[in-house]
Amino acid sequence: MSSSGAIESDLIITPPDESTITVDSLEVAQFVYLLLSSAKIRQTIDTITAKVVLILGRFTPERLAILERIREALRNRSYLPMLFDFKGPTHRDSTETISTLAHLARFVIVDLTDARSVPQELMAIIPNLPSVPVQPLLAAGQPEYGMFEHFRHYPWVLDVVSYPDEDTLIRLLDQKVIAPAEAMANRAKKPADNREVI
């Protein structure tokens, strides 16, 4: 049965005796209703956001090989790494996709080496997601891109980890990348978890 032509506005998805929530799309109404009513779905989302790590960087063959090594190392540590490899320059659609993925992430790892689309990606993520730590990486001897200094003012942007080579980076991943990001993620989560019950 088609809903084409049906009016989809001011759809109420809550029972009469509860605070009213209205939406303007049947698909959104179904999704939000499931989120509100199903503990299993909420638990699944919580599980995902506790394990997802978004990896950003340059997708030339050399740089992509390092990002793939990071992804494999994270997978071996029971994370759910996401590497968004898109073709061509960053545009609105890809930036919005990256922002959506960042909302699901426990933390973000970004390789600043030879950055091209990374500045735009970080602009879509860092100012809007204070609960998602960002761990920057940079190949030793390489300069940061000029505007990255702006992001250092955000407390959830961690110190840049400089690495001399791929093997050293993987060897130091737990201590220099994962541990600081996890510590920051735990601090960001604490206020919500420790709210006083009135």
The outline comes out as elongated
Helix tally?
7
* Proportion of residues in β-strands: 5-15%
> Main beta sheet: strand number and arrangement?
5 strands, parallel
Strand order of the largest sheet: 4-3-5-6-7
Tally the structural domains. Answer: 2
Kindly report how far apart the N and C termini lie: 48 Å
As a percent range, the share of helical residues equals 40-55%
Q: Please write the string of helix (H) and strand (E) elements.
A: EEHHEHEHEHEEHH
| Helical/strand content category | alpha/beta
Average pLDDT level = 84
Which CATH top level class of the largest domain fits?
Alpha Beta
The CATH topology of the largest domain comes to: Rossmann fold
The Rg value, from CA coordinates, equals 20 Å
Per CATH, the architecture of the largest domain is 3-Layer(aba) Sandwich
Low-confidence stretches: 192-198
Total count of strands = 7
Structure description:
- This protein is α/β, with parallel strands linked by helices.
- It folds into two domains: 18-45, no CATH class; 52-191, Rossmann fold.
- Helix content is 44%, strand content 14%.
- It has seven helices and seven strands; from the N terminus they run ββααβαβαβαββαα.
- It has helices at 26-37, 39-49, 61-76, 92-104, 118-125, 166-171, 173-193, and strands spanning 11-12, 22-23, 52-56, 80-83, 107-111, 134-139, 161-163.
- The strands form two sheets. It has a five-stranded parallel sheet with strand order 4-3-5-6-7, with helices on both faces. Strands 1-2 form a two-stranded antiparallel ribbon.
- β3, α3 (61-76) and β4 form a beta-alpha-beta unit.
- The longest helix is centred in the last third of the chain and has 21 residues, at 173-193.
- It is elongated, with a radius of gyration of 20 Å.
- The termini are far apart.
- Mean pLDDT is 84; it is low at 192-198.
